[in-house]
Amino acid sequence: MRGAPRIPGPRSAADDLDAPARPLFGPAATEPELPPRTGGGTLGGPGGGSSGGPGRVERPSHSVLKSLLGAWALSACSAEETAAVEEHLGDCAPCAEEALRLRDAVALLHTDRDLDLDPLLRFRVLENCLGRRPARIPVPTWANPYDAETARLDALLRDIGESEWHAPVRLKWFEGERQVSRRTTVAGVIGHLMTVDGLVAGALGLDDPLGPAAPAIPTERTQAFWRGAEEPPTRTIREPWRDQSHTLVRTVSFAGRGVAELSVSYGDFALPLRDSLLDRAFECWIHAGDIADAVDYPYEPPSGSHLHRMIDLAARLLPAALADRRRAGLAGPARQLVAAGAPGRSLHLEVEGSGGGNWYIALDSPAAVGSADRAVAQVALEGVEFCRLVAGHISPEEAAAGQDGDREAIRDVLFAAASLSRL
């Protein structure tokens, strides 16, 4: 008894002279004297095609049909092959996409049209590629923390539900001697990040999300955004925030080395772009933690190397912050006059754990150099706890795990660290 006709693998190449190619369909494809079959099936797996009765042709396997797509696009298939391929294209999305691409390619071979490529073809190809997979561009090392923290926050936002965008979030920071707070929502936090990031965008010549007449002070910008919103922000804020962060990373990546020192103004102070993006990475992480707490989402600190850079930035800003508090009468007076660049009294800041290290904070002048041999006090903190202090999330009194030496210097530096926080 003869078995049902079946379809072998792909046809031999046309220049293969060892044996004539056997058609995939019809009687010539039948194997002689196959054992009797008891059930249906396909070459790709059991039970997927027509029954194995006489005179019936089984449906070819996926790999066989995929190998025919090029011939199908060139209209070189037989009628049976064409029917089988087109039936398959209705069920298999990947093959259908590949078939359309092949047909488009074949259309370029027609000689009855202008062979000059559409000038917009390159744009469409690049746009399509970038939409499927973001371009791998060489991000400067100093921009890596911002790139990483915005990506981590975006991953958190992708995971939360519609209702969680309206979950209450309390933002905390220090003003003077006390901790203050402001209640908003998850969407409100993202709007806050976007508006302050707009200062960096403006410095790079990009569009400011608040427009050209927007305030330059971060707190005023955020309040202006919240006041100006016709309705409370919703999850729709995620897309413009994400697009802005991607644009910032792409811009600094293509701008060249000199852009790192570009000044970014925050109204009453300014930072070079390399430090400004590090500051934005720090705030992105801190507020991502606020959001994670509000929606009960696990969230880890930054990598050790990125955390170390954030701590280093805060340590470098502490002498100026201490001087500001001294001028406002909130810190003890300087003990001695120090020439610019000369060593003066210092506090040894020891940060433990991942990202930690040792810093010597100048106590008497922002222009002085802190040194180990002039240290009059020492404070030891864990890395994340120090960052929480700088973010205004914990009070100076509860921050230090270990203290030794001049009590006034210790207090002044801890409160100066908390004063670095802002809305």
Automatic annotation (TrEMBL):
Keywords in alphabetical order, please.
Answer: Isomerase, Transcription, Transcription regulation
* Domain Mycothiol-dependent maleylpyruvate isomerase metal-binding intervals: 147-292
Domain of life from the UniProt record: Bacteria
Where do Gly residues bias regions lie? Answer: 38-55
One GO MF term, please?
Answer: isomerase activity
Q: Note the InterPro entries from the entry.
A: Anti_sigma_zinc_sf, DinB/YfiT-like, MDMPI_metal-binding, Znf_put
Region listing for Disordered, in residue ranges: 1-60
This protein's species is Streptomyces maoxianensis
Pfam families attached to this UniProt entry: MDMPI_N, zf-HC2
Name all Putative zinc-finger domain ranges: 67-96
Name this protein carries in UniProt = Maleylpyruvate isomerase N-terminal domain-containing protein
Q: Indicate yes or no for the key word Isomerase.
A: yes
